[in-house]
Amino acid sequence: MSADRDPHGAAHPAHDGDAGAHPFVPGEVDASHRALLYVESVTVSFDGFKALNDLTLYVDDGELRCLIGPNGAGKTTLMDVITGKTRPDSGQAFFGQTLDLTRMREYEIAASGIGRKFQKPSVFPQHSVFENLELAMSGDKRVWSALFARLSGEQVDRIDEVLEIIGLVSERNRRAGLLSHGQTQWLEIGMLLMQSPRLLLVDEPVAGMTAQETERTAELLTSLAGQHSVIVVEHDMDFVRSIARKVTVLHEGHVLAEGSMSEMQSDPRVVEVYLGE
Ligand code: ADP
Ligand code: MG
């Protein structure tokens, strides 16, 4: 049933190859077969408990995908597998056609174009919004050397472009520590964008946001699709409804259902395990 394993008809070409045949090359992601992320039959056990159980998921290049499901369904564990934090016991995870995520180190995965936004803010509160983006671009953790390096016109343009995308143009010179909760989250997203990721993983982006901030975040993530693939984990169903084209429902480490939000809402299995609460 290979057609079931890949929505675009072809099994992953690198599946039977050995790791040495596909060395890691920074910045090179081959999405020529439309899918950008392949997760196939992944199982992760913790002391015999299967946090992920034969999970298969594909995400297209430029797609915005929502991941929902009850607590403990395995959403965070899936992100841990994609970012190399957790190794699966079995199964495959590929970024594009050639990058085997199960054999790359976390920093290699990040450098290859997968960015992850955590909930706890990692902005530098004493530095301006602009400087935070500048620091994120350099990828240099030595704050002072990065800030004293001269920016090229192109780099300044890129920072201004990201300020526009995240809606913080008017906060450009404000200290990051003075931003609202929502603005801080957008700055975090902007800092990820400075690394030009192909795939962005965002875990519960609107937790703690006001209704207005939530709406702005929906616009922001929607605007990123196309240029980037985005996987969003979120419990706020109004938010999911407002951004989702395709929703994947996880339950007990497995994909329970996949489709549009309205299809999920009328799927009795989904209503039973999650939406009916
Ligand atoms: P979700 O993000 O969907 O709420 P998680 O991926 O965090 O779910 O967790 C899935 C299951 O795996 C849960 O039952 C959780 O307790 C368990 N789990 C996650 N990480 C670990 C770990 N490091 N050790 C043991 N159990 C874990
Ligand atoms: Mg989680």
CATH class of the domain at 31-117 and 230-277: Alpha Beta
CATH architecture of the domain at 31-117 and 230-277: 3-Layer(aba) Sandwich
Ligand set: adenosine-5'-diphosphate, magnesium ion
Estimated structural class: alpha/beta
Overall mean pLDDT: 87
Sketch the major β-sheet. Answer: 6 strands, mixed
Radius of gyration: 19 Å
Name the overall outline: globular
Strand arrangement, major sheet = 6-7-8-3-9-10
- Hey, roughly how much beta strand do the residues contain? 15-25%
Estimated helix fraction: 25-40%
Give the beta-strand count: 10
CATH superfamily of the domain at 31-117 and 230-277: P-loop containing nucleotide triphosphate hydrolases
In sequence order, what are the helices and strands, one letter per element? Answer: HEEEHEEHEHHHHEHEHEEHH
Question: Any key phrases for this structure?
Answer:
six-stranded mixed beta sheet, disordered N terminus, four-stranded antiparallel beta sheet, binds magnesium ion, single chain, binds adenosine-5'-diphosphate, 11 helices, 277 residues
Can you describe this structure?
By secondary structure, the protein is α/β, with parallel strands linked by helices. The two termini are 35 Å apart. The model is unreliable at 1-7 and 9-26 (pLDDT under 50). It has a domain at 31-117 and 230-277: 3-Layer(aba) Sandwich (Rossmann fold), CATH 3.40.50. The protein has helices at residues 2-5, 75-82, 106-112, 129-138, 143-148, 153-165, 181-193, 211-224, 237-243, 261-265, 268-275, and strands at 35-46, 49-60, 64-68, 90-95, 99-100, 114-117, 199-203, 229-233, 246-251, 254-259. It is built from 11 helices and 10 strands. Helix 4 packs across helix 6 (153-165) and helix 4 (129-138) packs parallel to helix 7. The strands form 2 sheets. Strands 6-7-8-3-9-10 form a 6-stranded mixed beta sheet, sandwiched between helices. It binds adenosine-5'-diphosphate (ADP) and magnesium ion (MG). Adenosine-5'-diphosphate is lined by residues 46, 51, 69, 71-77.
